[in-house]
Amino acid sequence: MPCDVLSSFSCLDELTQIVYQSIHRFVVLSSVTDDKWNIYLGLSGPEGRWWSGSWTEADILQTVGSKPSEILLEAFAKKLAESFVQGEIHIGDWSPEAGAKINLTLGPSSKKPMHVPLVEMSAVDAAAHATNVFLEIALHAQSRKCRLHAAPAEYSLASITPSITPVASHAVQEPAPQPIDSSSKVAARVQGSSQKTAKPSANTVQVDKSAQEEIKLLKAQLEKQKKRPAASIEKPAAMAPHRKGASLANPNKKARKYQAIEFESDED
Fold it and tell me: Region Disordered: start and end of each range (predicted)?
């Protein structure tokens, strides 16, 4: 039988889940080897009892068909893995009696639940299996500086801090908008429409000088405009002094002279 059947079940390797049923608490372990899909069931308590079961390639083909495609096998394995991870697990025919025939049921509420028969392990086999489990845990702990569990909260926060700091610093360094003075406005006018999209260059100092000159020129023009109305108003011409002998009605003409008429006295 080709080994491609079990290679499609790699998604079921190294899975673990906790099952609460009635007053009991179970731990379920799933692993995949070259020729089997293995299930281990442990009962929490002082007795430390273990059960085991497996599916061989023949069991898998009996369930999915004698000539399944690789796509069908992978879809079937993923369906089992989803039921395992989501906790859709039930201990079928459970009995605490020794030698009881129980099974692990995946997808108990589905149309076609899958059953894996379980057999209780001997005390020696259970102890050996428990030792192997702790050995795997210790090997994985090497990458966590030999810690049994993940790093404490303070280490997690410290690892998160570098990702937060650049965002905060970027927000602080963002420049605040500055008010635009009159010289900047004039400089913008001088540059013209051709330089609206131009980027700052090395000639910034020269542009500033020309802007200052333009400001002086505009100020001078403003001063001239202010003075021009006062200068344009002509003062009325000073009245020429009244010429002696000129006519009051028409100063350009001489006044008429009237000679007094003298009458001779009767006595003469």
Answer: 222-268
From residue 169, alpha-carbon distances to 29, 155, 161 in Å are 47, 22, 12
Kindly state whether residues 136 and 110 are assigned to the same domain: no
Higher pLDDT, 266 or 13: 13
Question: Where in the sequence is the domain holding 135, given as residue range(s)?
Answer: 122-152
How many domains in the chain?
Answer: 2
Half-sphere exposure of 149 (CA within 13 A, CB side): 4
Average pLDDT over every residue of 9-24: 95
Q: What does the alpha-carbon distance between residue 24 and residue 19 come to, in Å, rounded to a whole number?
A: 8
Predicted pLDDT at 162: 54
CB-based burial, 174-200: b 16+ in 10 Å, e otherwise = eeeeeeeeeeeebbeeeeeeeeeeeee
> Poorest-confidence range of 25-34, 49-58, 258-267?
258-267
First to last CA, the chain: 186
- 211-220 pLDDT, tens digit per residue, is 788 888 888 8
